[in-house]
Design goal:
This protein is 76% helix and 0% strand. It is mostly helical. It has 3 domains: 3-296 and 400-484, Sodium/glucose cotransporter, CATH 1.20.1730.10; 316-385; 485-572, no CATH class. Helix 3 crosses helix 13 (264-295), helix 11 packs across helix 12 (252-259) and helix 11 (239-250) crosses helix 23. The chain starts with a helix and ends in a 9-residue tail after the last helix. This is Sodium:solute symporter.
């Protein structure tokens, strides 16, 4: 990185932190801190909701996902717009009616304290882990690519977030997320158009899409009914719907964003905005990854994008074998470039040559074989090495091909996204701990100032926990990959509790508590035996289905328990 990149990076991050702390200093009470005094307009609600979900992992992993596997991941989001409508019609009016600070307060009003506590604890476990991941995931990649110390990187990101989150709470998160979304999307748009600019002169965007399509990267929709397939239109609409319904409807990191809206209508409009823009945004990020793939059809590409693996190989006895593979890849890359240029030339003459398409597929197969061989060598050197390099693809492009200044901006994008998700996680964890656990179980009532200070303390506490978890993240293998499934393990059960509360009025407290408890244990078992014990790609069940199974099991089991064992119970 050049001096100009550092200047851009530091100024961008300092502006966000100082602006957030200054704009929102002096929260007077818990309502100010947690709900932002209910002053947030709908467009800020919408941007805040989008920024909360758009973690650094979105901008690191998603382009790499598209580079390797194509556009199919977008199906993951197909159920989201439907979920936004359901939440706007049902969840938001109920939350506003009961004037709750957290989503879990409603559960005590509908059921009992025990059910509220169970849902709150499930949330704290999964969100506590997830918040640590939002720090660790970008930190490990930044440290690997830039040579920064991983522990220091975790601490820096964590401290920056804690400063403005403790200072201003939800309002600080909402205000800074507007700036962060501007930085994030500006960086992504500039990068996308630069990629197109870097392609051969006679190559149009349509030509680029044809090349991507010839390599199987433009298969957007998969109608397969195989449950082992991770991303299909069926798992996206069904599992994705339940995941989005649980995440946006019951996860306090999101509920807190739209409960800060000026009114029910403002909250609803913010979520509708998210529903309209989220799928196109993810489509665009995936398409950026596909364009990176097209770019590397004409430019040198490493055997493995993870620079740590290259360093590891150079110190081993296998380096000559690895270098031989690199030479083969270089020769293959030259052939690939020539065939792609011929293919473009014929496309410009309105002829999609099927023979050249077959040759492109054959070259991709050979390249994959070389990469797999390279991974085998890396594992010979160190069996614990991370050979999955998807998360490093986009960063490799940023560091090696973008001009001065823009590298600093893109790093600011990654860190801003990490800060955004971490800040939302911390306010959600703090508010849930303070309201659902601490305040609810105090025997003697305290002053508003006491609860405000307690909430700030819990924000600091969870910030430290997140940093500590991120710092010991190296003890766990494939930690970054967990971020896509950690929510699915817990969300189904929690969503089931809320759906029963909203729609199944005959089910009472005892039935839902035991149904949720049994369902969560069952999901743990299903996850272990159908997903965890199998290598990536060989799972017997796509993880999205855990959301559907958990919610459905909780609903059905609670109804059965209510009409059998607990039929004499009454609604509180």
């Amino acid at each position: 990185m050049q001096l100009f990149d550092w200047i851009v990076l530091i100024i961008t991050l300092l502006f966000i932190v100082v602006y957030g702390a200054w704009k929102t200093k002096g929260s007077k009470n818990v309502e100010d801190f947690i709900l932002g005094s209910n002053e947030t307009p709908w467009h800020t609600v919408g941007l805040s909701v989008m920024a909360t979900q758009a973690s650094a992992i979105t901008f690191l992993s998603t382009p790499g996902q598209a580079y390797h596997d194509g556009m199919g991941f977008v199906q993951f989001y197909f159920g989201l717009p439907i979920a936004m409508i359901v939440i706007c019609v049902t969840f938001i009016p109920i939350y506003h009616k009961y004037k709750v600070f957290t989503a879990y307060e409603y559960l005590e009003k509908r059921f009992d304290l025990r059910t509220r506590s169970l849902a709150a604890i499930l949330f704290l476990v999964q969100r506590g882990l997830g918040t640590g991941l939002t720090i660790y995931a970008p930190a490990i990649i930044l440290s690997a690519l830039l040579g920064w110390n991983l522990t220091y990187m975790n601490i820096v990101i964590g401290i920056l977030v804690i400063i403005y989150t403790v200072s201003g709470g939800t309002k600080a998160v909402n205000v800074t997320q507007k700036q962060q979304m501007f930085v994030i999307m500006s960086g992504m748009f500039i990068t996308f158009f630069l990629i197109l600019h870097f392609l051969p002169n006679d190559m149009t965007f349509t030509n680029a899409l044809h090349i991507a399509g010839a390599n199987g990267k433009m298969d957007i929709v998969d109608f397969s009914t195989d449950p082992e397939e991770k991303y299909t239109i069926w798992s996206g609409i069904t599992g994705g719907f339940f995941l989005a319904l649980a995440y946006f409807g019951t996860d306090q990191s999101q509920v807190g964003r739209y409960l800060s809206g000026k009114s029910v209508r403002e909250s609803q409009m913010g979520l509708i905005m998210n529903g309209f823009l989220k799928v196109p945004m993810q489509f665009f990020i995936l398409l950026t990854g596909v364009m990176v793939f097209v770019f590397f059809q004409f430019n040198p590409v490493p055997l493995n994008f993870n620079p740590n693996n290259k360093t590891l190989i150079e110190k081993s006895k296998y380096k000559n074998e690895y270098h031989a593979l690199e030479k083969k890849l270089a020769l293959l890359s030259e052939d690939k470039k020539v065939i792609n240029l011929l293919y473009i030339d014929q496309l410009n003459q309105d002829y999609d040559n099927p023979i050249l398409r077959k040759e492109l597929v054959a070259i991709s197969t050979k390249e994959k074989d070389l990469r797999d061989h390279a991974k085998d060598i890396i594992l010979k050197v160190d069996s614990g090495s991370e050979t999955n390099d998807k998360d490093y693809v986009f960063f490799h492009f940023i560091l090696h091909y973008l001009p001065k200044g823009l590298i600093g901006l893109l790093l600011a994008v990654i860190i801003s996204a990490a800060m955004s998700s971490t800040a939302s996680g911390l306010t959600a964890l703090a508010s849930t701990t303070a309201i659902d656990i601490y305040k609810r179980n105090l025997k003697d009532p305290k002053t508003e100032k006491h609860y405000l200070n307690a909430t700030k303390f819990f924000t600091l506490f969870w910030g430290i926990i997140a940093i500590l978890f991120a710092c010991v993240g190296t003890l766990f293998e494939n930690l970054i990959q967990l971020v896509n499934i950690i929510g699915s393990i817990f969300y189904g059960t929690v969503l089931g509790i809320f759906l029963v509360g909203f729609y199944f009025k005959f089910v009472k407290a005892k039935a839902i508590f035991y149904a949720a408890f049994i369902s969560q244990l069952t999901i743990f078992v299903i996850y272990y035996f159908a997903i965890y014990i199998y290598p990536s790609g060989d799972e017997k069940l796509g993880y999205l289905w855990l959301n559907f199974i958990g919610a459905l099991m909780t609903i059905i089991l609670s109804a059965i328990l209510q009409v059998t064992i607990f039929k004499k119970a009454t609604i509180k």
